[in-house]
Amino acid sequence: MITLTDIAYVRSGVEDLQGAVRFASEIVGLEVVDSDEPGVAHLRADARGHCLTFVQGRSGVISSGFTVAGPEALAEAETELEKQGLLVERGDRAGARSRGVSEYIAFDDPFGNRVELAAAQFRSADPVRLTRGAGITEFGHLCLDAPDVHEAYRFWSTTFNARVSDWVGDGACLMRIDPVHHKLAVFRGEEAALCHINFQVDSLDDLMRNWHFLVDQGVEIVMGPGRHPTSGSVFLYFRGPENLTYEYAVGGRLIEDDSAWTPRVFDLEQPSSIDMWRGPVAPTTRQRQLPQTVPAATS
Ligand SMILES: CC(C)C(=O)/C=C/C(C(=O)O)=C(/O)C(=O)O
Ligand SMILES: [Fe+2]
């Protein structure tokens, strides 16, 4: 089993690089990191060198990166994935530099989501300089799409150290790789895609101020403000350019003792399973509601 130590980054192709960077910095609040790579922009939320990279080109998610313990763990992971019959590519020096990691490998999950594992993600000791006072504290989690969340869970929990924290019917599987309720979520969707990228904010005041700011800026609010009964976080999902969905969230439970936690299964058809501040609805008006997704960039 491969032990993922953390989420690292999301790389996404964009047709309008300037527009994507402008939104991620001036609207979301992320810090733009200096880059000497033509057509590539890096953004920062926390001590990671960067956690979001936009690459000028075809619109759509390119890859989602995780870290493992180090070079030996990366080599073992490469061997393990190849044993499972997955085609594993070892990144080159330029690719590692662009990702802000020492070395990395890449493969597709069973649904076609491009996943990268890195031996070490460079940290920055410089204080984060958010572009606006969004209160962002960290890159909190990433959410992928897969046509079968149970199959996705089987992949992530057998090949890797992911444990399910909660289910929302067969529509969503929320998985942890450390005490945080989830660092990886998989939502049901027709094709491989990035469902959303989460940034934790420091306080409820930050989240609500961000909500007013986004509304004033005419940003499409996808869902929220609301509160997930799963993680307990207060959330706000909103859409950026080229269909990239962002989430601000505050709070969220920690599961420190795996043996004391039993995953729950929430009813996908009940709005309160997604937002516990919503009341029940009659069966006739129930409808599935998951945040929209960003299809993978067809390579
Ligand atoms: C909208 C889905 C089904 C949902 O319930 C999401 C839960 C959470 C959470 O509990 O925090 C997320 O943030 C997430 O899935 O990304
Ligand atoms: Fe989320």
TrEMBL record:
Pfam families: Glyoxalase
Gene3D superfamilies named among the record's database cross-references: 2,3-Dihydroxybiphenyl 1,2-Dioxygenase, domain 1
Record-linked SUPFAM superfamilies: Glyoxalase/Bleomycin resistance protein/Dihydroxybiphenyl dioxygenase
Domain VOC: 6-120, 138-251
Stated name of the protein: Oxidoreductase
